[in-house]
Amino acid sequence: MRISISHILIVLVIIALIGCRPSGPSAVETVALVQTIVNIGSDTLVNLALAWAEAYMQQHPEVRTSVTGGGSGAGIAALINGTAHIANASRAMKAEEIEAARSNGIELVEFTVALDAIAVVVHPSNPVNRLTVQQISDIYTRKITNWKEVGGEDRPIVLLSRESNSGTYMYFLEHVVRLGDPKSDLLFSPDTLLMPSSEGISTEVRQNPNAIGYDGLGYVTPDQKGIAVSADPNGPFVLPSVDTVNDGSHSISRPLYMYTAGEPHGVVKAYLEWILSEGQRIVPTLGFVPLG
Fold first, then answer.
1. Residue 106 half-sphere exposure, CB side, CA atoms within 13 Å?
2. DSSP-assigned beta bridge partners for residue 70
3. Torsions phi, psi of 40, nearest 5?
4. pLDDT, tens digit (0-9, with 9 covering 90-100), for 14-56
């Protein structure tokens, strides 16, 4: 059989191309090696989660972490329906959420990732500096409607709250409005203005001298005034801070959670282990309280 010169040249070109191929993975293979963690949920946690994600991706460029808010309920729903790897929550899982997960064959696993104080905030011009938890409950249920009833000026009180899908809303309802009584059926007054985000509460408080709101400590800016709170009318009245959460003297504080669908493994497990160790250094820089 005769082999033409052109056939020989084609074979030589193919051999040359194979020899020039880099020993490492191709561009397509490199992209395939990048793994993504989808992280959805609590607006309270979103800034901290973004900071964690950014720091972790700098150390681990092979991992991409996508972080979005939307509320604790949204994150838990995404975890249950399989569109998230991690759900951020500023409240514990509800019984109906646990049941919904189990009906999908999922056992949700809880990780406490930081601690937070709930700050009650007003406009800086408001002369009221302190309130009891009972007074705050009475304000939000409209038993108290004017600032003069708690030592302020003769002005109507404007109520601000997060929306009902927020874990902060649920915590405040259960532990402040209902005073921690599981049998209570008290609700926020119907004229409470529901804000879609922590930033919404901050903006309204800064603009409205009659407003009262509540938010995670990490979202309180210098142009808002924090109220010192006491569980007892005789005090002590304590402002929220890292120290007062750690020593237990601030009466409105809570753990913050991440949930996974079953025990995490692979990149999700490695990421959570980093958050619970090295990642704790970032926690106080955003106004939250690190673990232990």
1. 22
2. 41
3. -130, 145
4. 344 334 443 333 322 323 345 999 999 999 999 999 999 999 9
- CA dist 201 → 28, 181, 221, 254 (Å): 46, 26, 11, 19
Other C-beta atoms closer than 10 Å to the C-beta of 7 total 10
Domains contained in the chain, CATH given = 30-115+256-286 (3.40.190.10), 116-253 (3.40.190.10)
CA atoms of 111 and 108, how far apart (whole Å)? 10
What is the DSSP-derived secondary structure letter of residue 150? Answer: G
For 109, the token pair is: 């696993």
Which segments within the chain are labelled E, that is strand?
35-41, 63-70, 86-89, 108-122, 130-132, 158-162, 193-195, 211-216, 225-226, 228-230, 253-261
Q: Is 90 within 8 Å of 171 (Cβ atoms)?
A: yes
* Better-scored residue on pLDDT, 4 or 55: 55
Q: Please give the C-alpha separations between residue 22 and each of 18, 27, 176, in angstroms, as whole numbers.
A: 9, 11, 63
Q: Are 216 and 72 in contact (CB under 8 A)?
A: no
Task: Quote the pTM value.
Answer: 0.76
Q: Which residues of 242-261 are buried (b: 16+ CB within 10 A; e: fewer)?
A: bebbeeebbbbbbbbbbbbb
Which residues partner with 211 through β-bridges?
A: 158
Nearest alpha-carbon partner for 288 in 241, 237, 233, 222? 241
Count of Cβ atoms closer than 10 Å to residue 199 Cβ: 13
